[in-house]
Amino acid sequence: MKNFKTYIEKNKKRFLNELFELLRIPSISASSDHDLDIRLTADLIKKHLLKLGLDNCEICETQGHPIVYGEKIIDKNLPTILVYGHYDVQPVDPLDLWDQDPFQPYIKKTKIHPEGAIFARGACDDKGQMFMHLKALEVLMEEGDLPCNVKFMIEGEEEVGSDNLEIFVKNNKEKLSNDIILVSDTGMISKTIPSITTGLRGISYLEIELTGPNRDLHSGHYGGTVANPINVLSEMITSLHDSNNKITIPGFYDNVTDPSEEERKEMASIPFNIDEFKDSIGLNLEHGELGYTTIERQSVRPALDINGIWGGYTEDGAKTVLPGKASAKISMRLVPGQNWKEINELFTKHIKNITPKTVSVKVIEHHGGQPYVAPTNTIGYKAASNAYEDVFNLKPIPTKDGGSIPIIALFEKELESKTILMGFGLDSDAIHSPNEHYGVSNFLLGIETISNFYHHFTKLSKG
Ligand code: BES
Ligand code: MN
Ligand code: MN
């Protein structure tokens, strides 16, 4: 295997500078205030693809944010890798909890990253990880040995559900045809223990709105005589879990299968320290479904969480008010067997059933996505495993992750190919949180591992 380390080491300053330029653009997909920033980011990525010598580079318009596409077909008889990533980022609030401006990237040493980590929104999720693929391609091109065909598809709506990418994929199956899809948008066990993500949970995201009285009322004059929508909503939400922390929606677990003994053993052997887990997020005690370990709860069991709840008075000081409305945003993480559309129906039906007559209810559906599992007995997995082994001197461990990338299951359905989830983030990277960061060494080792993957995959594909 070729040694790419020298080229990466020699060019790392420039690689980082280029990434910083990308991180400076606040490409928040959730807010239309940033539509121009989204454009600028897409343009910058296209510029990079052109500079890399990719052909047919284009910004593909959608009903929402654009998709950046480019390809290098060197020989139709060689395998084709389709790289997917996203250039959009999560909102930054609460801004006051960031040590510095989320869009002024800087490098700071941390306990876990003594060589330094890049701090910025999107540093890890996903600009930093997506950019590794551009740089890996540069490494391959500059070292004169791109061994196979490659297509890049970088979208701007992952953080808001990838609705328009779904349409794009359905309409462009030929253009996107490939032998394997390669994605870096997940994590690894630790800096020294590599892992390959073999499962992602699905997601159902909904909102409940309760309406009681036709306006906010004086909580003294009316208190005790009217059902308070916030009180009612709290009770309803509480009832969604039983005393064993099982979800109470009828039918919710119907298609969920328990992990086999073998699977449980495998999961128990993953290096994971529950005390470190608790310490890292400042907890005294973990919590979850009775009868399952934390790793199981995080990967092969579904979950239901309130993401936000509001109504009444939440500003400074006190205001005596009995609110007219109360709302909550709720996400459910789903596992294989569960279908988000069916789960949405079960949820909506159940919420309507448990809403008392004293209030009226509206259920609003946001986005959803199916869960994904990847087998480990494929050429793609083997190639990835070899690529990690070259760089980390350890065989990567297959792990299932609790997060969701809804488009991955759709790729499988529409493009009929499997995805290799080669993530280099760490749990401590604070993605979606204040002070998101990404280890400089994760970034550089990622570039190297990806470069190796191209060679292993091409070699194994030739048989
Ligand atoms: N990259 C994440 C998903 C992820 C993170 C998977 C860490 C595994 C480990 C992705 O950008 C994301 O945040 N997905 C959303 C879903 C989306 C529909 C908003 C999620 O999981 O909440
Ligand atoms: Mn992501
Ligand atoms: Mn994300």
Question: How would you describe this structure to a colleague?
Answer:
The protein is of the alpha+beta class. It folds into 2 domains: 5-200 and 371-461, 3-Layer(aba) Sandwich (Aminopeptidase), CATH 3.40.630.10; 202-237 and 303-368, Alpha-Beta Plaits. Helix content is 33%, strand content 21%. The chain has helices spanning 5-23, 35-51, 127-142, 163-171, 229-238, 261-268, 274-280, 294-299, 340-354, 379-392, 407-415, 440-462; strands spanning 55-60, 67-72, 80-86, 106-108, 117-119, 149-155, 180-183, 195-200, 202-211, 217-218, 303-310, 321-322, 325-334, 360-369, 372-373, 397-401, 419-421, 437-439. The chain has a 6-stranded mixed β-sheet, sandwiched between helices. Strands 11-13-9-14 form a 4-stranded antiparallel β-sheet. The chain is globular, with a radius of gyration of 23 Å. The structure holds ligand BES and manganese (II) ion (MN) (2 copies). One manganese (II) ion is lined by residues 86, 125-126, 158, 185.
Ligands in the structure?
A: ligand BES, manganese (II) ion
Strand content bin: 15-25%
Number of strands: 18
- Broad structural category: alpha+beta
Q: Report the mean per-residue pLDDT as an integer.
A: 97
Spatial order of strands in the largest sheet? 1-2-6-3-7-17
* Count of helix runs: 12
CATH fold description of the largest domain: Aminopeptidase
List the helices and strands and how they pair.
Layout: H1 5-23, H2 35-51, E1 55-60, E2 67-72, E3 80-86, E4 106-108, E5 117-119, H3 127-142, E6 149-155, H4 163-171, E7 180-183, E8 195-200, E9 202-211, E10 217-218, H5 229-238, H6 261-268, H7 274-280, H8 294-299, E11 303-310, E12 321-322, E13 325-334, H9 340-354, E14 360-369, E15 372-373, H10 379-392, E16 397-401, H11 407-415, E17 419-421, E18 437-439, H12 440-462
Parallel strand pairs: 3-6, 3-7, 7-17, 8-16
Antiparallel strand pairs: 1-2, 2-6, 4-5, 5-18, 8-15, 9-13, 9-14, 10-12, 11-13
Helix pairs in contact: 1-3, 1-12, 3-12, 4-11, 10-12
The structure holds ligand BES and manganese (II) ion (2 copies).
